[in-house]
Amino acid sequence: MRRLAWHVAKLAEIRDETPTARTLVLDIPGWPGHLAGQHVDVRLTAEDGYSTQRSYSIASAADGERVDLTVQRVADGEVSPYLTEELRPGDELEIRGPVGGWFVWRPDGTRPVLLVGGGSGIVPLMAMIRAREQAGSRTPFRLLYSLREPGERYYAEELRKPISGLDVTYLYTRVVPDGWARPAGRVTVADVNTGGWPAEFRPECFVCGPTGFVETVSDILLAMGHDATAIKTERFGPTGG
Ligand SMILES: Cc1cc2nc3c(=O)[nH]c(=O)nc-3n(C[C@H](O)[C@H](O)[C@H](O)COP(=O)(O)OP(=O)(O)OC[C@H]3O[C@@H](n4cnc5c(N)ncnc54)[C@H](O)[C@@H]3O)c2cc1C
Predict the structure, then answer these.
(1) 55 Cα–ligand 1 center, Å
(2) Does the keyword Iron-sulfur apply (predicted)?
(3) Once rounded to an integer, what is the mean pLDDT over residues 222-226?
(4) CB atoms near residue 224 (< 10 Å)
């Protein structure tokens, strides 16, 4: 198996997504390119030599040596508060990747696509939406995006504009906008039935988010008759190490 190299990335720009999540735009000399859905390992090393690493999905479609990550600050976390609060443009980070060959969408795919994201699980799904746009693909996409409240939407402006062939459904778990028909609550069979594809359409399904969310949605899809091999999952548990 090919050994992945560590690269030194420079932070080019920071974009606020929400009060607690930021997109880090990185320039990575020697970056080999990536597929939508892949992630990277980020390594931080302190002056005393202590080093720690975490995984982060790539948010952007392939774009030369530029890679976007979106990091949610986890209160009391070791790495995410540093990445979201301390890092400044011009600072350097060590990055290894791209990692993962299963949870990927390729623009030559023709089957309809269902994307189901919980919280920061939207990140690799957004890379797929962006890769579809970049390739001029007409593959029909449906996105179910579960999040606590409207203020936690990542990529809010980009997803607000209509994208031909992409249907977006927001599932709020705690607070809904005024006049919103669906009451606040976790994802249900009815949500996936209404906002997803019938199993007979044989969609490729990508499910990403916290472990419990991924398991619930996978069980719903299986119960609806979707083929287990068509359900690809990525769990954002703690990575540590
Ligand atoms: C393949 C993969 C891709 C990922 N992609 C992203 C991404 O695109 N954006 C992103 O923000 N994160 C992503 N993560 C999660 C990320 O790797 C870290 O786990 C997260 O940033 C927390 O790290 P930390 O050092 O701040 O917290 P830690 O110091 O590791 O943990 C602090 C406390 O928070 C808990 N905790 C850790 N991670 C989480 C979490 N994700 N949710 C809730 N509680 C947690 C721990 O159990 C612990 O109690 C991904 C994880 C995986 C496995």
Answers:
(1) 8
(2) yes
(3) 97
(4) 14
Burial per residue of 97-106, b for 16 or more beta-carbon CB atoms within 10 angstroms, e otherwise: bbebeebbbe
Domains of the chain from N-terminus onward: 6-99 (2.40.30.10), 113-235 (3.40.50.80)
Pocket of ligand 1 (CB under 6 A): 39, 54-57, 70-72, 74, 76-80, 120, 123, 210, 234, 236-240
Token pair listed for 219: 């069980």
Find the 145 Cα to ligand 1 centroid distance in Å: 19
- Please write the tens of the pLDDT for every residue from 55-85: 999 999 999 999 999 999 999 999 999 999 9
- Of the candidates 79, 94, 124, 97, the one whose C-alpha atom is nearest the C-alpha of residue 235 is 124
53: Cβ contacts below 8 Å, ≥ 6 apart: 41, 42, 43, 44, 79, 96, 239, 241
pTM comes to: 0.96
Q: Which of 41, 80, 96, 120 to mutate to test the pocket of ligand 1 (most atoms within 8 A of CB)?
A: 80
d(CA 45, CA 82): 12
Question: Which of these, 154, 125, 155, lies nearest to 142 by C-alpha position?
Answer: 125
Is residue 241's pLDDT more than 50?
no
Return the residue whose CA atom lies nearest to atom 5 of ligand 1. 56
Least confident of 150-154, 201-205, 237-241: 237-241
What number of other Cβ atoms are within 10 A of residue 147's Cβ?
Answer: 23
Bridge partner residues of 99 (DSSP): 39
